[in-house]
UniProtKB/TrEMBL annotation:
Residues 455-488 have a biased composition (Basic and acidic residues). PANTHER family: ADIPOCYTE-SPECIFIC PROTEIN 4-RELATED, PAT COMPLEX SUBUNIT CCDC47. This is PAT complex subunit CCDC47. Belongs to the CCDC47 family. Residues 1-23 form the signal peptide. It comes from Anopheles dirus. GO terms for cellular component: rough endoplasmic reticulum membrane. It is found in: Rough endoplasmic reticulum membrane.
Amino acid sequence: MRLLLPLAAVLALLCLVPQFVVAQGGADNGEDNDFAEFEDFDDDEFVMGETHQAGQQPPAPAQAGAEARQGIDPAKGQPKGAGGASPQDSEDFMEIDDDHADDDGIVEDEDSEFEHFQDEEEFEGFAGTIGEQDELREGEPTVGGKHAEPKLTIPKVPIHFRTHWDSYWMEMLMLAGLMAYFANYLVGNKKNSAIANQWLSIHRSLLEDNFALVGDDGKKETEGSTFSFNKESESVYTLWCSGRTCCEGMLVELKMIKRQDLVSLIAGIMKPVQDQLHIKVELSPDSMDNFVFCVASRKQATKMFKELNDLNKFCCLVSKAEDKYGVPGFAVLSEIAEVSSSVLDGRIVAALNKYSHLIDYIHLSDQYSGPIQQEDPNQLKRPEVKRILHCGFNVPVKGDLEEMKPLLILVFYLMDRVRRLKLSKEAKAKSDKNRAAVEEEFMKSTHQARAEAAAVRREEKRKAEKEKILAEEDPEKQRRWEKKEQKRQLKKQAPKMKQLSIKAL
């Protein structure tokens, strides 16, 4: 009996040694092999492949993942290490879990790949999620088990090009306006040209008798008696005449209504205007004494007094000129009373009364410089003045230009009358005094500007002299110039003293 107990213990030990050796060898192999973790998955795939070949259906991916997490063999449906796997496999699995306990193993589910389609915030403005779309499709009609295509509703869009002319009333109105404007341009331009040619044909002989050269514009040579107006614009025609005593030349300007412009014609209905003839004669310096005189309609006289420089500076309005000179409807602006009575003789007064509806103004001046200009502090000289005779006449409305021929004769009479007019000593003294006062006023207004200009000129002269001295290589000259400059500066800085002489008692 004592011998049997030790023998049984030896046999039991011999049975346990092989299992311990096998387990130890598997543990060593798991520690040395870095890819042991993936060998278990290969074994699982191999088992699944055998099961599939044997006619068994492989488990679903989701079910296989769940069983793997629970420790169940997907091929046998039993827990590993509890009859479904050998103890050796169980020990190998435990060893791998111990070695890789620090690694975070994440098993992805295939269903999570399409989870973003179930997110309502993923598709904004979409009809709904996949489930909602399926619910919507359940109510749609089906054909042969398939959803029927939705019906497309095409709205009725009106045709852009219509056949009715009343749809283009705005375009037709604009086209009619353009046609009316161009037609009026042709008719108005032709009418203005006809008026200019008619006036020239009536006064041609009178102009040729008084001037040696008619129609000279300085650009082309006139041959014989063939001359015409110079067309400045569709409504302005000019004619230059020269070659007569007591004048340097005469400019005839026919300024008519802008008949070629439909807009101007419409504006003329609200503010009527009239065709006018302006005659400007440049008198010779020795053919007129120093005076300024103007006779014009009341409205025109007020306008000219405000706009023209010579009338504003030298003339004043003559009171009761209608009764005094017998010119009803006219105002007189005169510098010297003697001139008014000399110019407005019987012949001139008769013409003013007979053609009062045609005569607009008559202006005589030896100080004509144009309209009043704004005061410019940099202007150091007075504007250039001329001796002129300006006459303005209205063209008859009915177009009877023969009535204007005596007015041109009146202009020639005024030229001769001014040449023969001589002022008395008192009138000349008053005239000279007025011009001296205007000159003094101008000098006072420009004194500051002239002083600044003179200082600039002196500084430039001194600078040029200094550069000239420094350019020379003579130190003696430079020394003398510097000494002279110092004396000048000291004298300039010294206070000014006034010397008074006292007589002894």
